[in-house]
Amino acid sequence: MKVAFWSLTGLLLASSLQAFATDATAVYTKGGGNPAAMACITCHGAEGEGMAAAGFPRLAGLSADYMKKQLGDYLSGDRANPIMQPIAAALTPEEVEAVTTMLASKPAPKVKKIGRAAEAQTLGAILALRGAWERNIPECVACHGPSGVGVGDAFPPLAGQSAQYLSSQLNAWRQGTRKNDPNDLMGHIARKLTDDEIKAVSAYFASLNEAGAAQ
Ligand code: HEC
Ligand code: HEC
């Protein structure tokens, strides 16, 4: 009787400890405690690499603070999206903390760093490296870093994202469904870009690899 009591207590203790330590991999691969917090892996890929053809973004190697901000912005509606809003709403703060920390520690794709001084021939490269200052459009690398690899927690990487995803975000700013950027930094830029420019600059950043720019 006594033995049974202690082993039962042990079991209860072990299961309550497990409930406290949020398992980031379980959230990513199986979803959160709330069934509406769907498994991230379904859309963001086995290693957080995203799904280019579907326009699902890469999360591997993004700043944890940037991702936490985005999940909060989906929740508040500053970044309106019918897929991510219910998922962000269903995640607990502990699950958000765990899964974003885990994803931030994954490797980002390697790209050759191309800065302002590099040659720029195509429309995409010119916007990325020179901007269009006559229309008050700064070069993207001024904020997003050489090759758009991202800078700190505020400026996310553009390299390693698909052209579909990049152009969908620029269009979201143009349409006003994404308005989560401080001081309208991106909205101001996106509204000045033409359709052809959005296509070209998105294709440019999506084409970057270890050898340089393929576009
Ligand atoms: C059914 C598909 C789907 C699932 C499941 C999913 N996502 Fe997403 N996620 C998306 C899409 C689509 C976007 C881009 C939405 C937009 O345009 O704003 C996105 C965007 C994001 C972003 C913003 C990335 C950026 O670069 O700004 C984060 C962070 C994110 N998801 C985290 C998660 C986490 C964490 C989970 C799992 C708990 C998850 N997602 C599950 C489809 C999904
Ligand atoms: C003045 C600084 C600045 C410049 C210049 C700039 N950006 Fe941004 N960009 C930002 C900030 C800040 C964010 C993140 C906003 C947020 O908090 O969600 C961002 C986010 C983005 C995103 C969304 C990435 C994601 O993971 O969802 C895209 C796409 C983007 N910028 C494209 C561009 C392009 C293309 C250019 C050049 C034409 C450019 N940006 C120039 C500041 C800038």
What's the short version?
Helix content is 48%, strand content 2%. The chain is mainly alpha-helical and 215 residues long. A two-stranded antiparallel sheet has the order 1-2.
Characterise this structure.
Helix content is 48%, strand content 2%. With 215 residues, it is mainly α. It has two domains: 18-104, Cytochrome Bc1 Complex, Chain D, domain 2, CATH 1.10.760; 123-213, Cytochrome Bc1 Complex, Chain D, domain 2, CATH 1.10.760. Strands 1-2 form a two-stranded antiparallel sheet. Helix 4 (64-76) packs across helix 5 (84-90). The mean pLDDT is 93. One heme C (HEC) is lined by residues 57, 69, 127, 137-138, 140, 142-144, 154-156, 158, 166, 169-170, 180-182, 185-186, 189, 201.
Fold-level CATH name of the largest domain: Cytochrome Bc1 Complex, Chain D, domain 2
Q: Record the strand order, biggest sheet.
A: 1-2
- Helix residue percentage: 40-55%
Order of helices and strands: HHHHHHHHHHHEE
Give the CATH H-level superfamily of the largest domain.
Cytochrome c-like domain
Tag the structure with descriptive keywords.
215 residues, mainly alpha, 2 domains, two-stranded antiparallel sheet, signal
